[in-house]
Write a structure and sequence with these properties.
About 50% of the residues are buried. The protein has helices at about 15-25, 40-50, 55-60, 80-85, 100-115, 130-140, 175-195, 295-305, 315-330, and strands at about 5-10, 30-35, 50-55, 70, 90-95, 120, 145-155, 205-210, 215-225, 230-235, 245-250, 250-255, 270-275, 285-290. It has nine helices and 14 strands. Helix 5 (about 100-115) runs antiparallel to helix 9 (about 315-330) and helix 7 (about 175-195) crosses helix 9 (about 315-330).
Length: about 325
Amino acid sequence: MTHLRWGLVAAGSIAADFAAGVERSKHGVLEAVAARSADRAREFATRFDIPKAYGSYADLLADPDVDAVYIATPHPMHAEWAIRAAEAGKHVLCEKPLTVTAPEAEKVIDAARRHDVFLMEAFMYRLHPQTRRLVELIECGAIGEIRAVDVAFSYSSGANDAPRLADPALGGGGILDVGCYCTSLARLVAQAATGTEVVEPTTVTGLARLSERGVDEYAMGLLRLPGGIIAQLSCGFRLTQDDHIRIYGTTGQLHVPKPAWLPKMRQPATSQIVLTPESGEPEVIEIEATQSVFTREADHVATHLAHRQAPELTWAETLANMRTLDRWRAAVGYGG
C-alpha cells in the first residue's frame, strides 16, 4: 500500500504526537479526525491540515476514505471503538493498554480476526532502535546469563492535573498508565534471554499506595519470569522516580536511563545504553534514531498490514501483557 489513510479517534495530546508522526511518514496520510465536539475536531484538523473533521467517532468510522484508525481515547473506551472500527473494516492501531482487562483484549482481538483487519497495540518504544539494540545485546550474551531486571516508570502529575488518572471508572492508576511499560519491558528481557517468542511470569506479587477511591497512586511489583529471572517493577503517577531499566547478568549489567518514553524520542535523536562489565570500565553505546517513534509506528502498520499483526507486537504478546497487568492490579488490591 502506497498510502494508508488515517483517521484519528480522539484529538488529545497523544493524538497530536501521532499526527505529527504521520506527517513525516513514508506510507501514511492524515485523512480525518474525530473528537467529542465538532469544534475541537475542527481546531485539530486545522492545526495538522487534515481534510475532514467529525464531531462523532461513529461518523469517522463510516467514512469510506479512512483505511486505518488510531484510537487515542481514555482506556475504558478502547475496547468499544476498536471493536466498532474492526466491524467497519478499518485497520486499528490502539493506544496502550489495548484495553482495561485481558478478557476485553480477547474480544478486541476476536473482532479483528473475524473482520480480517490489522490490529496493533501502540507500544511505540518497541519499534525504537534503542529497544532493538538492547534485545541484541541480551541475545548475544553481552552480560552473560540474565538474572534480574529492575525497571521504573513513575512521575508526579500533581493533585489536580490528571483527574482521569485518579478515577477508577476511567481506568485510572499508575499500573495501567505506565506500569504497562514496565511489564512489557521486563517480559521483553526474559523473551530475549530465553529465546522465547512470548513469556508470562509464573508469579506476580505487589504492593501499592491506594487512593480513597482504590486507585494505585504508585506501586511496586515483583515477577518471577522464565529462565530464573526476577523482575522488580515500580510505577506511579503521584511519585517522581528516575525512569530506567537495569538488567543484571552473570558477567555485567545494562542500563538504559529512559527505556520506555523519551520526549526526544518524538524527534530524531541519539540515546544511550550503558554496558558495564563485571570487571572493566563502562561502555556507552550510542543509538541514533533518524525518525520519531510515531513516524516509525505509522510506517510499521503499513508495512505489516497484509499480515494483520506486527512481529514485535503480536496479539499473543498483547494478551500476555494484559494478563500480567490484571494479576499485578489484583495483587495490590486495585479498586478496593
